[in-house]
Amino acid sequence: MTNSGKGQNDKPETASTGDYPQETPVETQGTQPGSEAEMNVQPVVIREDYRGSGKLEGKVALITGGDSGIGRAVAVHFAREGADVAILYLDEHQDAQDTVAMVEAEGRRAVAIAGDIGDVAFARQAVEQTVEQLGQLDILVNNAAEQHEQKSITNITPEQLERTFRTNIFGMFYLTQAAMPHLKEGSVIINTTSITAYKGSPELMDYASTKGAIVAFTRSLSQNLAEKKIRVNAVAPGPIWTPLIPATISEDKLASDWGETPLGRPGQPAEVAPAYVFLASDDSSYFSGQVLHPNGGTVVGG
């Protein structure tokens, strides 16, 4: 099944909790990392009744993978809480423009920067551009990732292995290193890991391995930056309906077991983004080195 190219006017950007889709959609896209503008069944970005209360007033956030999916939802939630936002993305220009429009509709400034976070030069340039255009940097959200389904470890080529690690974990190091001169006491770093770091994934072995590395990176960095009073935490989502899913998960898997959770349905980005708001705000002032688990009820260790 392929997408039908639905656009911005068809997006159900908001929904009430009771209106979240109860079944896993079945659709695929041909290229990574996927386009939200072309999804038949649109993700829910923010709840209709979500009320901002100025938790991030005066802050500036940089969000990788902020053009769509969880990153888009985080950008919109941050904006509703008073933050200006820079989003980094690969080449999904329409998605990025849509996200910028959503942030600006919340009355905040938005900057969209295209490039590959696995390139250290781009990572440095993106941080400098963020600070130049928005004046400061207070919150870094390392969220961008890629994944490639393979049924056997022998099918994972050296090129795929390096590419997955370069995007998913090298990029986090590069962005964090570039951000450090601009972060100060009270700044926050939030990394996106995954339920696969705890459960494993038989067909996403390299991806799951990077997500395990992110957990260790988060815990180690939190200890390293404790003296600077910079907090570092992570979010480990379960199955969430984002463009990465139809772009990487096969149709037969989507139709069978993807999205099975104790709550009986896949999650929406709107259900994950408030965890990032919590970790970015003073509400989590005694949290560092921790991982939150919005995963539909699956109990995992750590």
Entry keywords:
disordered N terminus; single chain; Rossmann fold; two-stranded parallel sheet; 302 residues; 7-stranded parallel sheet; 36% helix; alpha/beta
User: Averaging pLDDT over every residue, what do you get?
Assistant: 88
- In CATH terms, the superfamily is NAD(P)-binding Rossmann-like Domain
Taken in chain order, the helices and strands follow as EEEHEHEHEHEHHEHHHE
Largest beta sheet: strand ordering = 5-4-3-6-7-8-9
Set out the fold topology.
Elements: E1 14-15, E2 46-47, E3 60-64, H1 69-80, E4 84-89, H2 93-105, E5 110-114, H3 120-134, E6 139-142, H4 158-179, E7 188-192, H5 196-199, H6 205-224, E8 231-235, H7 244-248, H8 251-256, H9 269-280, E9 291-292
Parallel strand pairs: 1-2, 3-4, 3-6, 4-5, 6-7, 7-8, 8-9
Helix pairs in contact: 1-2, 1-9, 3-4, 4-6
Give your account of this protein's structure.
It holds the Pfam family adh_short_C2. One of its GO terms (molecular function) is oxidoreductase activity, acting on CH-OH group of donors. Keywords: Oxidoreductase. It comes from Deinococcus budaensis. This is NAD(P)-dependent dehydrogenase (Short-subunit alcohol dehydrogenase family). The chain has one domain (57-292): NAD(P)-binding Rossmann-like Domain (Rossmann fold, 3-Layer(aba) Sandwich). Strand 6 (139-142), helix 4 (158-179) and strand 7 (188-192) form a beta-alpha-beta unit. The model is unreliable at 1-11 (pLDDT under 50). The N and C termini lie far apart (37 Å). The chain has 9 helices and 9 strands. By secondary structure, the chain is α/β, with parallel strands linked by helices. The longest helix has 22 residues, at 158-179. 49% of the residues are buried. The strands form 2 sheets. The chain has a 7-stranded parallel beta sheet with strand order 5-4-3-6-7-8-9, with helices on both faces. Strands 1-2 form a two-stranded parallel sheet. It has helices spanning 69-80, 93-105, 120-134, 158-179, 196-199, 205-224, 244-248, 251-256, 269-280, and strands spanning 14-15, 46-47, 60-64, 84-89, 110-114, 139-142, 188-192, 231-235, 291-292. 36% of the residues lie in helices and 12% in strands. The radius of gyration is 18 Å and the shape is globular.
